[in-house]
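Hey,
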Amino acid sequence: MSNDKAPTESTSNPAAKLWGGRFSEATDAFVERFTASVNFDQRMALEDIQGSLAHAQMLSEVGVLSTDEYHRIADGLKEIAEEIQNGEFPWSVQLEDVHMNIEARLTQRIGATGKKLHTGRSRNDQVATDIRLWLRARIDRIGAELTRLQSGLVQLAEREADTIMPGFTHLQSAQPVTFGHHLLAWNAMLTRDYERLMDCRKRVNRSPLGAAALAGTSYPIDRERTAELLGFDAPTENSLDSVSDRDFAIEFCAFAALLLTHLSRASEELVLWASSQFDFIDLPDRFCTGSSIMPQKKNPDVPELVRGKTGRVNGHLIALLTLMKSQPLAYNKDNQEDKEPLFDAADTALDCLRAFADMVPALKAKKDNMLSAAAKGFSTATDLADYLVRKGVAFRDAHEIVGQSVSFAIEQDKDLSELSLEQLQQFSSEIGEDVFEVLTLEGSVAARDHIGGTAPNQVRAACIQAREQIAQRA
């Protein structure tokens, strides 16, 4: 939750603080600013109000608040939510964080009843609840965008099921594959990412509300009820762990780091393929930019930037791991530093997915260039070896024969398929006229006709299966 109004700064007297009863001097102005989190945690304002509404309703149901008090609190919170959404809320650094800002505003609006809202909870379980609510919503948005990307990717893969391109190992031409098959490799990575995200969501979706500061509360609260009202699967089980656990944030950042790693690998290939040296694809102009001095340039800025943002998200994962590595139980002020890396990791993952989901379906394959490149580099050499094995030649002997054939072809400046039968037979008498059927690119890809293979009919079958898996998510 962002807001155009910057929090105001002022040196406060201790009595102005909601926790200031035991303090005899004002907070230092620098310390006040240094320890405040409202500049970034106000993003969770609506989640904070959502949690407060559930807490107030539960307090009313167990008799801690009267019905009238609950309704006054609920109405006041809803009015504050409107202020926030309209950009009219008066944020204050003096009030430190999103929780104290909202609570103070509530008391200002409805009087002393507002001070009863915090009964039976602490900012420790409150912030833990807010983060989980915020992250759960972002996980759902990221999951939807990931699904949109995969849907477009599978559609493109099916369209390019017959498009032959070189497959690489060590970035050297290895064996021919189809472009559709290559795209489905990206989809396989993203499927694992989606599974990780949904698994992470299960652990995010637990309610720490009611754990209070660290030990629970003496009030007759109903934690199952607040968990139900907030859509959590269940309450967390231990009050100490409830307020200090940030595993879920680390786990999400681990997901995001892996997701960005996969998008970065795809980005690297897009950058290479779009270069004049490869010239395999055309990226639409709307996903590229130009040069300030070289008018001919068309730079693949979107995949380059996604590739670059991977380091940013990896850094957030390390930051959170380092943040938590030495903290004793339970809550510590260190945990204020969890939000900015988490927020940015979620924002970055979502933005990168959106860019890819928009860009990938618009890719145009330059099929002739791909086919021409696949014909270079002796990419059917393995097919010749397999051919010889089927003729009864031991594989190691076949490997040697093909190696000699390739060496000869290099001397002749020809591909294997361009050698005559007589030239091939000088290396093995087992080679017959039918060898040229396996030396074609089309024959090579068609021969990989098994689950996970690059044969066009297998690619189409895999696309059907992928679409069915994606459809089941709804």
